[in-house]
Amino acid sequence: MTELLSRITIDPAICHGKPVIRGMRYPVANILEWLSAGMSQEEILKDYPDLEADDIRATLAYAARLSRVNRQEDLAA
User: Fold this and answer.
1) Strand partners, 8
2) Which listed site, 6, 24, 49, 65, has its alpha carbon 20 to 30 Å from 77?
3) Are 2 and 15 contacting, i.e. CB atoms less than 8 angstroms apart?
4) Residues 7 and 65: beta-carbon distance below 8 Å
């Protein structure tokens, strides 16, 4: 997991400090939105050849890590 998460970088000079993939201008949030909209990993990799399969796995691992909180509020409200 640590190796995957090392693909996620945060730099104030890149995308306003949002988490991105390997210092490139691919915000983690964008990749999550593409996946939640129904794009497959294969479609994403075809559309964005700079990305690798492990980048998408890292994005999911990062999101899973962020979801581990002590208390969750209702997001549907």
Assistant:
1) 21
2) 65
3) no
4) no
pLDDT category at 76 given cuts 50, 70, 90 is: low
Tell me what the mean pLDDT of segment 1-11 comes to: 91
The DSSP symbol for 27 reads B
DSSP 8-state assignment for residue 51: -
Which residues on adjacent β-strands are paired with residue 20? 9, 27
**Could you tell me if 17 and 28 are in contact, meaning their C-beta atoms sit under 8 angstroms apart?**
no
- Please tell me the distance from the alpha carbon of residue 16 to that of residue 46, in angstroms, as a whole number: 26
pLDDT digits (tens, 9 = 90+) for 21-67: 999 999 999 999 999 999 999 999 999 999 999 999 999 999 999 88
Inter-axis angle of helices 53-66 and 28-36, to 10 degrees? Answer: 90
Residue owning tokens 């990062």: 62
